[in-house]
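User: Fold this; tokens only.

Assistant: Input:
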Amino acid sequence: MNQTYAEYFLWSKLRNKQLNGNKFYRQFSVGPYILDFYCFDKKVAIELDGGQHAETGHQLYDHKRIQFLNQQEIKVIRFWDNEVIKNRDGVLETIQTFITSISNSP
């Protein structure tokens, strides 16, 4: 499996329960889709997007995918690959805040 640098970096920070003790899986299957990273306990998916996701056909695919995941009560947070590379700490903080807000909601 070939990973982008952004995927490699983020996985190095998510694996082994490094982010507040949350267990993440890499390349996790949900229905017909494969999630980049998934926290089963919190039902949170983290998706990293390269430039191809800006193309119209891919945007429609992503929209259908998000709808399916939302029906499964999975919350999705997305980042561009270059965002992960240029703002590592900010991305990790955003993920942590997102998961904390999920944990604290009724």
